[in-house]
Specification:
- The longest helix has 19 residues.
- The termini are far apart.
- The strands form two sheets. A six-stranded parallel beta sheet has the order 2-1-3-4-5-11, sandwiched between helices. Strands 7-6-8-9-10-12 form a six-stranded mixed beta sheet, with helices on both faces.
- It is α/β, with parallel strands linked by helices.
- The chain is built from eleven helices and twelve strands.
- The protein has two domains: 132 residues, Response regulator (Rossmann fold, 3-Layer(aba) Sandwich), CATH 3.40.50; 143 residues, Response regulator (Rossmann fold, 3-Layer(aba) Sandwich), CATH 3.40.50.
- The N terminus is likely disordered.
Length: 329
């Protein structure tokens, strides 16, 4: 009986180790998160999610990328990561034409690659984890219609050529096409620098009559505070500002009334789920890593994992503030 009990206990221990993942991992397993604009709170949140998952699995996480928007510098970091032959790479694609060739190089060398936040759908990456950016843009477009009363001039601040911002803009345009009296007065390429948004907003405030800008929409994180600061300095309260993401400055702006609303994403979740997904691929690799699984009805992988998006305004901003590190102090 005692021998049987020992066998059962040993089996249970093995099952626990297997389910927790600890038994199969090593700190020699290295996973990379490659992105750009790493100085933004958005990417600091993503790094926290990536590192937390690495701690859970007892593997090594490395977060790399330039502190500003620089696709070429991101490419250099990707190439270094590929040369290190890691267990997997999670990457946000700043510019498809720049990064896709080396994503394909990595996969062809047997390194699993998953995209997050911004995709390269035509690459050999396994799949994408992030926001349904088209739907998020539609959500923002509905807010514009509601708050503008169906008419007005709108300007968008974006990063041209970045897949996620392009999808967001497309979503806005789809919704606004149903209201022809809401006119898109401009789409400003910030080139990853929020000062473009500040300068453009400041210059636009002088326009009145038919040329007056009634709403500003920021399709990435850094522009929200930049535009809000200009409006606040000029004591302008009759313009609508819709931002993107939930950094502390944006949430404070909603609380203060300088920002009407923002679209919240989940970068922490994207990176956390991303490392776990790469770990699974590394330990249970497919027969063919560089196969197009989107065309396989029996694929072991999804095409897209939607981590969700929501609209934050004065009605629910306190919940989001409470969830931030500052709110938990």
């Amino acid at each position: 009986m005692k021998a049987m009990t020992n066998v059962i206990l040993a089996t249970l221990v093995l099952a626990i180790l297997s389910s927790s993942g600890c038994g199969r991992h090593s700190t020699k397993e290295v996973y990379y998160l490659v992105a750009n604009n790493m100085s933004l709170p958005y990417w600091q949140s993503a790094a926290a999610g990536f590192n937390k998952a690495a701690t859970l699995f007892h593997v090594t996480a490395r977060v790399v990328g330039p502190g500003n928007y620089d696709p070429r510098a991101e490419l250099a970091e990707l190439q270094k990561a590929v040369a290190a032959k890691p267990a997997g790479i999670l990457i946000s694609v700043a510019e498809v034409s720049v990064l896709q060739p080396d994503i394909d190089v990595a996969v062809n060398q047997g390194i699993p690659v998953i995209t997050m936040d911004s995709d390269a759908a035509g690459s050999r990456r396994l799949y994408f984890i992030g926001t349904n950016n088209l739907q998020a843009g539609r959500l923002g477009g509905q807010r514009l219609i509601q708050k503008l009363g169906g008419r007005g001039n709108v300007v968008f601040f974006t990063i041209a050529g970045q897949p996620n911002t392009e999808e967001r803009l497309k979503g806005f345009k789809e919704v606004l096409a149903t209201r022809p009296e809401i006119r898109i007065a401009g789409v400003v390429d910030m080139k990853g620098d929020a000062r473009y948004a500040s300068d453009w907003t400041r210059e636009s405030l002088a326009a009145m009559g038919p040329g007056k800008i009634d709403a500003y929409v920021c399709l990435e994180a850094s522009a929200g505070k930049a535009v809000a600061d200009v409006l606040k300095e000029a004591n302008v309260t009759n313009r609508l500002l819709v931002a993107w993401d939930v950094d502390q400055d944006t949430l404070d702006g909603i609380k203060a009334g300088t920002i009407d609303a923002t679209i919240a994403q989940k970068p922490f979740t994207m990176a956390y789920v991303g490392l776990k997904a790469l770990d699974e691929v590394f330990h249970a690799p497919p027969r063919q890593l560089n196969k197009d699984y989107s065309a396989d009805a029996f694929a072991p992988y999804p095409v897209f994992v939607d981590t969700g998006a929501s609209l934050v305004d004065k009605d629910n901003v306190d919940r989001y503030i409470a969830a931030t590190p500052e709110g938990n102090k």
